[in-house]
Amino acid sequence: MSAPPSRRPANRRPPNRAPNRRAEEQARLAAEQAAARRRERRILVVALVAFVVLLVGGGIGFQAWRTNRTPAAAPAAPLAAGAGATITNARPIVWGDPGAPVTLSLYEDFHCPHCAEFEEEFAGVLTAAQQSGRVRLELYPMAFIDEGSAAAANGMACAAEAGFGPSYFAGLFANHTLKWSDDQLIELARVSGAEATPAFTTCVTSKAHAGWVESINTAADQRGVTGTPTLFLDGKAVDMASLTPTGLETMIAEAAQQ
User: Fold this and answer.
1) Which segments of 83-224 does DSSP mark as H helices, in order?
2) pLDDT at 73
3) Lowest-confidence pick of 38-52, 159-173, 244-258
4) Any residues with CB less than 8 A from the CB of 189 and at least 6 apart, and which?
5) For residue 141, what are the domain limits?
6) In sequence order, which residues have a C-beta less than 8 Å from that of residue 119 and are 6 or more positions away?
7) Is residue 133 part of a domain?
8) Which of 139, 146, 157, 152 is nearest to 71 (CA)?
9) What does the pLDDT read at residue 2?
10) Which of 53, 217, 222, 251 has its CA 20 to 30 A from that of 194?
11) Global confidence as pTM
12) Three-state DSSP class for residue 209
């Protein structure tokens, strides 16, 4: 029996490693790109955090400045200073001719931004009406927003009692964003052209008229006042939403003729 034919060994090609190298290179590039994106996100997050910190810090700083700064003088006092007022519980501060044919009762809070807007828009009308002898103005300084409201209302009573109520009143609304510390209220007397006498200073720091301020809040509640500013003309509530300076002038003129 003959021996089986011998087989020649097959030629084996070396394994092709090119696809593996391409895959490895693609994986490396993908990893580098992912790492770059992570770095970019971290940089973006850090930048956003820094921006927010600066924004918040700037806002806090600005708010601190606008509430703690020294008060500035009002552009002009609405009325000349007069004799000191007598502060009586539940009774308003009164300006104008006692025998005027028209009585306006005004309820405001010295920290009320809408009251500051009202004063800016209507102060000229009210002042002219008082100076002409047509209006007797009853001022009820309410204090329902915060402690600064109560401090300012007390300071207003001290100023009225000392005889420089009108200029102090204008100054309170010209600086309505202040928190109204004792020092600010005392300084307001000086920038309003008055003297911060020891009696006035003590009145402010001791909250001498705190009971009167509370009694004004009670009187407002009893009259149905639920917000500020609120205005009554001869006992009738005025529609504040539609009121204009010209409209108020007309209302005063018509009421004075009755």
Assistant:
1) 113-131, 147-162, 165-174, 182-191, 198-205, 210-222
2) 83
3) 38-52
4) 159, 162, 164, 168, 195, 196, 200
5) 93-257
6) 108, 170, 173
7) yes
8) 152
9) 55
10) 217
11) 0.74
12) coil
In this prediction, residue 68 carries a pLDDT of 80
Q: Is the pLDDT reported for residue 215 higher than 60? A: yes
Position 120 scores a pLDDT of 96
**Residue whose C-alpha is closest to residue 131's, from 87, 80, 207, 205:** 80
Q: Mean per-residue pLDDT for 43-71?
A: 58
Which three-class secondary structure state does DSSP give residue 104? Answer: strand
Q: What SS3 state is found at 109?
A: strand
User: 38: alpha, beta or left, given left = phi > 0 and alpha = psi -120 to 50?
Assistant: alpha
Q: What phi and psi, each to the nearest 5 degrees, are found at residue 142?
A: -85, 165
pLDDT, averaged across the chain: 86
169 part of a folded domain: yes
> Are the C-beta atoms of 228 and 141 separated by less than 8 Å?
no
Q: How far does CA 210 lie from the centroid of its chain?
A: 23
Lowest average pLDDT, out of 51-60, 108-117, 191-200, 215-224, goes to: 51-60
- In Å, how far from its chain's centre is CA 5? 108
Domain count for the chain, please give it.
2
Tokens of 228: 């500020």
Q: Supply the Cα-derived Rg of the chain in whole angstroms.
A: 37
Task: Tell me: do 47 and 152 sit in the same domain.
Answer: no
Indicate the DSSP class of residue 83.
Answer: S
Element holding 237 (H helix, E strand): strand 236-237
Strand order in the sheet with 102-109: 93-96, 135-142, 102-109, 230-233, 236-237
Write the CATH number for 115: 3.40.30.10
